[in-house]
Specification:
The chain has 207 residues and is of the alpha+beta class. The chain is built from six helices and seven strands; from the N terminus they run E-H-E-E-E-E-H-E-E-H-H-H-H. It has one domain: Roll (Hypothetical upf0131 protein ytfp).
Length: 207
Amino acid sequence: MGTPPARRMEYLHEGEVPRSLRAGGMNKILYFAYGSNMLSRRLRARNRTPSATAVGTGFVTGRRLTFDKVTTDGSGKCDAELTSTTTDRVYGVLYEIDPAEKPSLDRVEGLGAGYREEPVTVVTGSGTRNATTYVATAKEPALRPYDWYKALVVAGAVEHGLPAAYVEWLRTYESHPDPNARRRAQNEQVLFGAEPQAAADAAERRG
């Protein structure tokens, strides 16, 4: 038997449905990441979901991206806020994840602690896909993200080639410095691939 062909990605500019989203891949969880977990280095950390494999990009309609999810560190995190306006879109990345890692995904997404799980229909370049995502249950419109958190979101969007106008909007979103120097430094090191994600998670929990 010959070498199997390389996996194709279902990015918005491509029209082919990847093999991973056909019947053979349906035993995996299809997760729609739209915040800092778009960055594969962050999501695939050992203490998160190392099996996560990006299989495409897309958007969810009737929602808009906000950074007003309440957190223990005093900053705002991402939410795909329901607007029911068809022209509103939240772009993100589709990942396949091993079902055994679902508890870890729930933990890092804060399920039951500010986020709830919700099914979404993701529009891709080759049709729609049903996926799971997490949306905020506690919001405060005055909140703004820390600079490092916004940078993680932007890095994930750039990594996966989200639309240029959307990426530019992310770049210009208001953010502010994290007053906790240790947490700031550790997350910046994750951003540049120099620090294990586990250390940054621990710093974030400590506040």
